[in-house]
Amino acid sequence: MIQIKNLMKSFKDGESEIKVLKGIDFKAEAGEFIAIMGRSGAGKSTLLYQMSLLDHPTSGEIIIDGKDTVNMSSEERTSFRLTTLGYVFQDYALLPEMTALENVALPLLMQNISEKEAYEKAIEHLIKVGLEKRLNNLPGQLSGGEQQRVSIARAIAHEPKILFADEPTANLDNESSRKIMDIFKELHSEGQTIIMVTHEVEYSKFAGRTIHLDDGKIISVVNV
Amino acid sequence: MFSSLNFRIGLFLAIRQIKRSNPWTTILIVFVMFFTFLNLVVVSGILVGLIQGAVDAVRIHYTSDVIISNLKDKSYIENSSEIINLLKTIPGIESTTARYLDGVTLEANYKTKVKDDDKPNIAAASVVGIDPIAEDKVTNLSKFIVEGEYLSRGDYDQVLLGVYLDKKYLPIDSPGFTALNDVGPGKKIRLKVHGVEREVTIKGIVKAKVDELSMRVFMVDSQLRSIIGRNDYNVSEISIKLKPGTDPNFVRDILKKSGVDHVAKVQTYTDAQPKFIKDMIDTFALLGNLLSSFGLIVASITIFIVIFINAITRRKFIGILKGIGINEKAIEISYILQSFFYAFCGSVIGIIVLYVFLQPAIAAHPIDFPFSDGILVAPIGGTMLRIGLLMLTTLVAGFIPARMVVRKNTLDSILGRN
Fold first, then answer.
1. Cβ of residue A1 closer than 8 Å to a chain B Cβ
2. Of the partner residues A75, A83, A102, the one whose CB lies closest to the CB of residue B16
3. Would you state the pLDDT for residue B174?
4. What is the DSSP letter of A143?
5. Domains recognised in chain A with CATH numbers
6. Which residue of A has its CA nearest to B318?
7. CB contact (8 A) between residue A75 and residue B327
């Protein structure tokens, strides 16, 4: 499903260059649930950004579903994210002027699906995450946990091949975090490929494989 | 860029942004657009109206729609009676007035001269012989009486004096301007026309912003005719008022085909306009457009700043939109549509205010400029053109900042990195 070869990512800091990823080799098969862990600054989120095509690596290969994504144009990457990938942001990243339903329907509309069908699918996925009574609420009217569930619904509504999640429980209380992880567990049981960055050891146990990063390199891989 | 899908998504985004933005901010921006529209239309409209008001006044109160006047080498129109009879047969003519014109010297206070070599109180002018009723029907002359009364058909040895001949109204001491001291209704003055002297009483003072009214002396036509010996009843001018909807060119052409132009000059009110008036209208229109274009620049900068601030403060959400797969073009279109919305609303409100309130109000109560009653000239075609310009400028002003922000790196936008 996704293969990374010798992935490097550096940032320029004035005259000097900071290497964040120093040659990552990694492979995930379809249907896997992978957790990425490490201390702050290890490069976890950076790795996720490269894999989800939100950023460009300095060098290396990222092959998703057989496609070489590093050499794609900006427009191709946007389109690929729209159709093939799903992303759950740490801070929910909902559009404040749109209701929960509209936030979820928007990417579907971008795929040229009719408004009726887009809204039907959006409702279906919002029900799946337990928000059937909050369809017409704006993000400001939802709790953190509810907003994150809307974010998940948006990320899975178009049935992506891979779902990326960047510390999805970081801003949530325990109860809400538990609910989020239960949703991921259910999605995984339905065959969804999930790659999740987390600080929480407890939540990494939901994954079938945990990759530990430190100083930009994979230092261990633990299969559950 | 403008694929229907991108447009559809852009519209989806724009509607929701506008609906759920701060209503006061929206009202403020629409307000700016409304005033920009007014600036575009009203500034040049008033400048052109300044002259147009004067032009309209000359038409309404002097030449009327068509004017027949003497040829250069004659002081009268030959066969005037036949021409006046011909006018009665032409369809579309509502009323006519015929005028005798001649030069006159006026003298006042001649009875109170102490010594023979005292400077005489004299003025040179044109004297106009009119049928008061016919004249009033065509030009509303009676409404310009500011002192005294209007003439009646039977008034003998009575005149109306234009204000420019009364020093009280025109206190200019200059060789080019001769006016009489100490005159007014009831006062006697002496007229000298063709060597014939006549003592007359001032019945009224005429004050208008049309020089041909304010610089002349008016008396009953039969009396002037007898003074100047115009026993052939040939007049110097005939002003023709047409029924609404009648084309002045049509009437002019009929008169020319009837041979009237062999003995007189036949002109519509437009033909009779001096070239400098046309030049002034064009000049003021150009000036108005120049001033309006400054307003357009200000409006476009305003929209630029508004959209730029909007886009910059929403940079994170723009990044999120791109992150979840929304096409950059769709996002840019959403900002263009928002700009269009502000300009459109401002223009619609502007059109309503302009044509329902402003233009009728100024038409009913013209601006009192010293030399004209200023009106607001705002032809529909010109207004639509200005709206088009405003829309185009606004769209560009909205697109540029949107493009600047949308093009930024997606991840940097999401994370708030520079």
1. no
2. A102
3. 60
4. -
5. 2-223 (3.40.50.300)
6. A95
7. yes
